[in-house]
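quick one if you have a minute, typing this from the bus. below you get a single protein, a line of residues and a line of whole numbers that encode the local backbone shape. could you go over both lines and see whether the tokens make sense for that sequence. anything you notice is useful, everything is just below.
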Amino acid sequence: MSTKKDKFSFKDNFYMELALDLARAREGNTGTNPSVGCVIVKNDEIVSIGQTSNQGRPHAETNAIRNAFVDLKGAKMYVTLEPCSHHGVTPPCTSSIINSKIDEVIYSVIDIDKRVKGKTFKILKSKKINVYTGLLKNKVNEFYTSYFYNRRKKLPFVSGKIAVAKNNLIYSKNKKKITNWRSDKFTHLLRYKNDTILISYKTLNKDNPKLSCRLKNFKKFPKRIILDNRLETNTKSYIFRTSNKDNTIFFYNEAKKSKISEFKKKKIKIIKSKTDRWKKFDISTILKKLYHLGCRNILVEGGNDLTKDFLKKKIYNRFYLFKSTKILSKFSEYKEFNGFNVLKKNYKSKIKIKSNFGNDTITLYKN
């Protein structure tokens, strides 16, 4: 396959960087499809841009072609991922590209989807369209880490987070607030970039969370997953009151019939899932089920027990440790995080994020 790796210009890099920014802006909001960014240039001027639509269709290339305000004959297209070449719910992007009379296509990385992989190059070349790959390859590959993981493993990409005070408490009855407002906004950004949030019923009953992204102009309500073996969720909680068959799933194992009826009466989706001898859920089975249900990027916001269990089993692909300079009180009810040793043992790669977070420190651990 031909590349232009050593001959890409400064402008080529600029246009692909813009395409990548477009893809990043839609991350976590494109359903089961990857988020793709596309820029079309003619006579050294940007004449159109496109992103994968919310829920995945239409694709970025089709949107960019539709958005163009000039004749695209002789234009260049910059796209982060190999354009699709197969007939699915929508026609292939290669057909739109060919019909548009675009003269050159530069896509950064090759798709690993077997229906697409390597086929686009041959199709476009056969129509005398110049095709090049490899521009910003490392940076774009990093962006598609979760998508490639989804495709290879047939599993959701799992991120986790926990906030810890200076004295390692994650909860104090006297003062529940641990991190500052900047860190809180970062948490909401994580929610925005994930299509699913998972917690246990213990966290639900203690914190009564909403599990939504409430950033200005970026509101989002990811699917909510609750691990609740006996269906002990507080029925007066926000999540229970706002649950329906589409936005929330409860996993249980040994709940009473009366409890099951209560949940079903409200038309809440409940799924019976196996547990081990310690009454802990088989997480691998649950993740396979969630992938089948369309969940691709899951954020786990657990307490001490759930977080430590996931760390032990290396469930997390990424884990964010928020560390505050606050010291929480131990004079009343409190909970301490005791998962540091297993975190350091199982997650060797880490990146510290300090800028713009005041006195808080966020450390990203990678599996």
The first strand starts at residue 37 and ends at 42. The radius of gyration is 23 Å. The chain has a mean pLDDT of 92. The first helix runs from residue 10 to 25.
